[in-house]
Amino acid sequence: MRKFVIEREIPEVGSFEQEQLSGAARTSNDALSQLAPDIQWVQSYVAGNKTFCIYLAKDEAVINKHAELSGFPANKITEIFSIIDPTTAR
Predict the structure, then answer these.
(1) Which of 23, 25, 60, 70 is buried most, with the most CB atoms less than 10 Å from its CB?
(2) Could you tell me the pTM of the whole model?
(3) pLDDT band at 81 (very low <50, low <70, confident <90, very high)
(4) Residue 60 and residue 35: Cα distance in Å, rounded?
């Protein structure tokens, strides 16, 4: 599967309480279960009015289908080709 970062614009998501974040995760998981095994959620970063989600997916189409089923927008989908971190400098 390919790796993607999905930018989602969700008003006030950065101020969501834990219960709201848990509910959002359940909604996402319900959609993912309908699309398995073609998509997997790795993790998400919540910042301000956006989330940045890392997914493994067969293609962009399945990510868009997840957005449709979950109700969470996929405003920008970018495929990840490489990962670097401090150890890359070796």
Answers:
(1) 70
(2) 0.93
(3) very high
(4) 13
